[in-house]
Design a protein that fits this description.
With 56 residues, the chain is of the alpha+beta class. It contains 2 helices and 4 strands.
Length: 56
Amino acid sequence: MAYKITDKCTTCGKCIDSCPVEAISKGDKKYAIDAEKCVDCGACAGECPSEAIEPG
């Protein structure tokens, strides 16, 4: 199950640097995780200061 980024995202960019498979990209109002690329490692969730990333 891929992770997802909620509306709490502040677009700080910390999650992008932590993703080992480059599954995160900048969206219109928040970052987005490509479910096809996500390997469910949780690295991004651990780096998010606003706790905007959760299992999805």
